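Final report, results section. Input specification for complex C-07:
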Amino acid sequence: MNSSVKTESLDSLLAACDRLAGKYRIFAPTLEDAVTGFRPLDAMTKEQRKAVDAIAFANKPPVTSVKSFFFPDSEIYIKFSREGRAVTQMDLDVCAPQIILGAKSCDVRSVELIDKVFLAGPIDTMYQERRQKTIVIATVCHEMGDNCACQEFGVSPAASAADVLMAKGCRGDIYLTPQTVKGEQLVQELCTVGSFAVCASLPIPVFDGAVEQLVAEQVQARMDKSFDSPVWERLAMTCIGCGTCTYYCPTCHCYDIRDFSRRDQGVRYRTWDSCMFLSFTNMAGGHNPRPTRADRLRNRFFHKLNYFVKKQGELACVGCGRCAELCPVGISISSVLKQIGSDLHES
Amino acid sequence: MNPNPLLPVKGAVTNVICESRDVKTFQIKPENLFYHLPGQCAMLSLLGIGEALFSITSPPGRDYLEFSIKRVGKLTEALHQLGVGDEIGIRGPYGNGFPIEDLQGKNLLFIGGGIGLAPLRSLVQYAIDNRALYANKLHLVYGARSVEDLLFERDIRGEWPKERDVQVNLSVDVPHQDWDGFVGYVPQYLEQLPLDPENTVAVTCGPPIMIKYVLKTLEKLGFPPEQIVTTLEYKMKCGIGKCGRCNLDEYYVCKDGPVFYLSDLLKIKNDFCK
Amino acid sequence: MRKISEALREVAGRLLRSGEVDLVLGYAWSEQGQGTVPYVAFTAEEAANLCFDTTSRMALSKYLLQDTFLGKRVALVVKGCDYRALKLSLSENRIERKHTYLIGIDCPMMDGSPFCLICQHKCPPAEDVDILLTEADEAGELKASSHQEAFPEIPSIERMSGDERFEYWKRQLNRCKRCYSCRHACPVCTCRQCLFDRDNQDAVDPAKDVLAQHQFYHIIRAFHVADRCVGCGQCAQVCPEGIPLHLLHQKLQLELHKHYGSYRAGLDELPSPLSHAHAHEPDFFGKVGKQ
Amino acid sequence: MTNEGFEPKIVAFCCNWCSYAGADLAGVGRLKYPENIRIIRVPCSSRVDAALVLRAFQNGADGVMIAGCHPGDCHYDTGNYHTRKRMVLLMSLLEFIGLSRERLLVKWISGNEAERFSATVLGFTKELRQMGAYEKARDLRCVR
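Structure output:
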């Protein structure tokens, strides 16, 4: 079913995408003020469009992950206006079908982990709709970046469960291999609007799995043992308590529900929240089950390396390296694993 | 297409009872009444102001839901302005509710503190409504800060003492001239009452500080952790185990709780009544 | 920076061995190759990890406001700008001078920070610190002669038209996710309970996609530190979205100095210019109409 | 771009001792001034900080006016000294961030200057009609 197609350059793929702009909103990773992130293709300047190639095939993910396409940083889900006592709810704009061009396999994997929470139990229909309406074209990484640890967490830089896998040949030609029905349908649409040739093999680099993979249950057990360890107090001494690690982590999915209103009009929206903030668990009476920074820091890493394993059976980390790169004081999953001495990281 | 679990359903306030100077009980009829267990909660919502989880204080089987709300913040302040006929948003039921099967055929010792009586009331009334299943002794020990703060007068001094084999002991923290009952904290009161742990389950609900000392006293009186049930109070936003803030270790208080056996709570590393 | 690092390790080891301090708050090499990051040494052995170089940017004085440091005797590494921030907290009795042992460092100018290009206070005053470490042979001379040269973006933004300026800041602020790392890293942003932390307040809400709320947060924060900013450059340095927040603070300080005379927070005497006002100061809204 | 029929909304913070008295006197004296103005009485013009001005713009104001006593007449001695110091900085920062400086007007109007009050409001309203609606600092979630 998934016969690969080939086109001679990324520009020709982008040109084909432009022709689909009527039906899809297309996003690709590029630079904006020296910061990498996903931007709409049709709103890009010429330089930004040229930068897509380098960033999409870089050996590290952009600063902002694909999480925000499924779980946006803010999402209005009730819009209302009130006359007297009668409250009428206006309907909201529906999410348009979208294509993400150039996601990394670690980000694709992180969405699968968030699926385990939002698509289980009472299904989060907002998230579900965005998942159904989004087609992900993931790129293949040829080598690991300096902060990358995806293989340790069972993520292959070259293979992901994305709808379409995109690889670059040595002469800059682009190979697309659909892996799902959505992917198949997109590739056909692209073929009708762009110059593609069917081709057999896809030059995917083979990662020989030299990197030993962390076993979720072992990390969970080691975390259980380190619950009362002074590690958390020490890390909390230099942590400045900001929300960077949670907002830029592709597997963090905690949110807040807030109302904004003005006289007789208002909205109720869901927005990202960070367990590192005091107000995350602060209660009306002032009671707070996690009052100190050490409590909050410990809870954050326990959620990723212990609680998520107990509930979902897997570690909630894809080794993308963003926490290592963006934390102002250098606290990250790998530094925590080193300190609690996981089997791979003997401290 | 299943509906968005976060969307509240319309409900109307059908009765408002003033329990004390800062607690009111609201009787609400949602558009589609949902069945609930005693001890379960529901999210009450006022568009533009906010949403919060409140325990359902009426027993299952009524054609309305009752919520007792203490005025502590912005939303509860606005809720207290509601009158009969006003509109309110509601979604639920949430939480696991009390283990009503395990409690059958046992003496039940209810220990409530202040607004903590609200979730217990649902269970006490449920036991009284199904007296055949809960034929044994029902004993309520309930304390409040002052005489005016005692809630549900019509039950604790009206209906319940009249029921067969139901004992109600009340206490207040602050003496009052026409109060002849016990003066002091609930945990101290427990030590003076003839309590026999034999075939008895204690169900306690109240502010964290009270739960902490009640549990210590119950252990001193010989109650094993398997026979102690409590509810926990955490900040909750989604109510469906996803928004990540009400976790106690790996359990979400809104979904895996708020009712826990003490034996389960003791396995948890985090201090549940910090 | 070898000499300063060695001297730092030696001083820290001596202090910890003698028990004169409970811990040394300095910098250490980060495993993630980000240069140096803040580090706490409790024992003489751990003091060996301490080091200092041109990436030791984070101001450390704000940590002492945390309750984990309450009552502890702390040796603290302070560059020129860090000392100015610490002096503000000392003057507000948020930190006890007798609980601190100040290891002053003649700062070799951090890389990547425009502030250092024109910094005239690289070294904390010798008499105010307990020990001063310098690397005499590497005294860097000023790389930029004027404020405009160090902050070229300010004049270039000022030259833009109103709409261009709005578009520029709209593009920048729309990337803001309100992770508040700019506020948490700022050593002079030290209110006990911040306006933006209070729950259920109406002033600003955490919606991440409303430009008006981002404008509100960043303008108000710039105002709150207008006459406190010591020019450590961390607000822009820690921002994951690369928003040039330091330009807001520098622009406000330029205006403050233009109208009310230069004032160097943490150096010049209190009270700071925005905490008092006098009749003799210029009036812009008098009978003659707008300035 | 003068879109006719557009009526700007003006939020005016009037200091209780001078400008509010001036406005009152204008009303008593039957002096006409446009009703675009919504007066908020404040104890002193220095009660108005950057947060109030920005919230006014957020909630839909097209212009904000701060009216206080003439320097030297302040009931609290130094109130308007702080106001002018703070507002000149706020104006420059608003301009720097791309918001319009002309939509924030600071005026000293004493208790007996009724004509000056109504003239100021008339002038400001005309200017704002000229400039048109102001969305750049408005929270667009509630459009009405």
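The radius of gyration of chain A is 22 Å. Chain A has two domains: 4-199, 216-339. This concludes the modelling results for the funded period.
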